[in-house]
Amino acid sequence: MGRLDGKVALVTGTARGTGAEIQRLFVEEGARVMGVDVLDELGEAVAAPLGDAAAYQHVDVRDPSDWSAAVAATVARFGPVDVLVNNAAVLEVASFEEHSHDRFRDVIDVNLVGPFLGMQAVLPGMAERGAGSIVNVGSIDSLEGEVGITAYGASKWGLRGLTKCAALELGRQGVRVNLVAAAPGSDDMSKPFFEATTAKLKAFMAAGGKAELGSPPVQPMGRGVGTTRHVAHMCAFLASDDAGYCNGGDYAVDGGFTAGHIFPGSPGTYGP
Questions:
Q1: Is 238 a member of any domain?
Q2: pTM of the predicted model, to two decimals?
Q3: Which of 84, 117, 177, 183 could cross-link to 254 by cystine, CB 3.0-4.6 Å?
Q4: How many whole angstroms separate alpha carbon 177 and alpha carbon 162?
Q5: How far is CA 124 from CA 7, 73, 81, 109, 234, in A?
Q6: Is 22 in a helix, a strand, or coil?
Q7: Nearest Cα to Cα of residue 126 among 156, 158, 169
Q8: Residue of 56, 152, 245, 251 marked active site
Q9: Tens digit of pLDDT for each residue in 20-35?
Q10: Is 221 within a domain?
Q11: Does any domain span residue 197?
Q12: Which residues contact 103 (CB under 8 A, 6 or more apart)?
């Protein structure tokens, strides 16, 4: 028996990274899953090996008509949507001054407006049945600030607020809404930015510039930032009936990173 037996889920951003892992795990746990993305070839490749329990459809989460089509396709293929996982996201890494107006809007539209439209699209069916679970995949950047990600951070803080407001209203209709504040994410999304940032820093310092280079943050569990599988497991829990009394919560998957600060050499960091 899987914890999602009999559930029908619609998951966004399944072409790679966290979304792909969520689709795989949900199928393992007994769900039937419609994965959606704009990277069609990759999305099809993730769904195909999962058999009849998985399917893929092209969806631009910024487009209400795409959302309507996705819900209709899911109902036609698998039945009414029990679970929505808003995972699709885009990233921008740049200084505050370097963020362009157009790129800022792009990030907000995908990361915040997209989930809003998705929630509106699945709500009528969930409310009619008096049950449903919406899982919004946020970030540890929705729990604390971070440099270099103005647009992304703003979108994830907004998603956290959207989650709580929706939970208050939709809970009365039997629909739970929760946020997973993830540390692990898609390397495919972040790698190009980190490579460009590293190259820019090296060039700056080679030209005689001085940068603040502190020690790396301390991870309480000493295990890096975890994996997308850890995030998928939290999403599966919140999607399941085991989380039937969880609504409006923030669930960090970060190994304790946002719990506080560790100062090396302080009591509790050495000895008995």
A1: yes
A2: 0.88
A3: 183
A4: 9
A5: 17, 15, 10, 22, 25
A6: helix
A7: 169
A8: 152
A9: 999 999 999 999 999 9
A10: no
A11: no
A12: 92, 94, 151
Looking at residue 69, which CATH number applies to its domain? 3.40.50.720
Total residue length of the chain: 272
Strand order across the beta sheet in which 8-12 lies: 54-58, 32-37, 8-12, 83-86, 132-137, 175-182, 250-253
pLDDT tens readout for residues 193-236: 555 555 554 555 566 656 565 655 666 655 566 899 999 999 99
Tally of structural domains, the chain: 1
Range of the domain at 143: 8-188+226-254
Rounded Cα distance, 72 and 49, in Å: 23
**Residue 152 designated active-site:** yes
Could you tell me the two tokens for 93?
Answer: 């890494």
d(CA 33, CA 39): 17
DSSP-assigned letters across all residues of 211-272: ----PPPPPTTSSTT--HHHHHHHHHHHHSGGGTT--S-EEEESTTGGG----TTSTTSS--
Tell me which residue of 88, 75, 87, 86 sits closest to 8, measured CA to CA: 75
Element of type H or E holding 178 = strand 175-182
Do 56 and 14 meet the contact criterion of CB atoms below 8 Å apart? yes
